[in-house]
Amino acid sequence: MKRLFSLVCAVLVGVVTTSCSGKVAHTSYVSDQAGVTILIAGDASEFKDGIRNRIIAAYRSAATIRVVNVGDLNKADVGSVDAVVIMDTCLARTGLNPSMKSFMKQAENRKKTVLFMTAGDPDWTYRYQEVDAITSASDLEQQEQVFTRIAAELDRILSS
To answer: What's phi and psi for 132, nearest 5 deg?
Structure first.
């Protein structure tokens, strides 16, 4: 009985996780005038897709932009990357993405990272490995405000 309960819980967590977020296709946008490279690692949702598209539109002419799924972040070559934007979801009791945790353990990665986390609570705040996250509920009306905060952090990292 206990084993069946554990199996049912595991399946439910998997269903909730996959229904709330999807995989992001690996893509690259190369600019002829690129002086910097930005890596965006995230999961997919209507809210995050809108923000990711705004980042791409804002930086595409001046930066090479690589997009990967957040689950593949720890496999990404970040040696030549100037800035990293991580867009992840915090789901109750499921913990954080292991790929993101592995990536954030390295101090040189934290210095060039903008961490954006979505959660159900709009007032939730988060800090991981000395990086203050930009947090938001997935409210479509907040996309511009979240993009503005991410862009400000990106500009700060890219100018240093």
So the answer is: -75, 125
Least confident span in 40-44, 78-82, 95-99, 154-158: 95-99
pLDDT digits (tens, 9 = 90+) for 117-158: 887 766 666 666 666 667 666 777 788 888 999 999 999 999
Tell me the backbone φ, ψ of residue 68, rounded to 5 degrees.
-135, 160
> Going from the N-terminus, what domains does the chain have, and what CATH number goes with each?
20-159 (3.40.50.2300)
Q: What is the pTM of this model?
A: 0.77
Instruction: List residues bridging with 39 in a β-sheet.
Output: 66, 84
Task: Write the single-letter amino acid at 102.
Answer: S
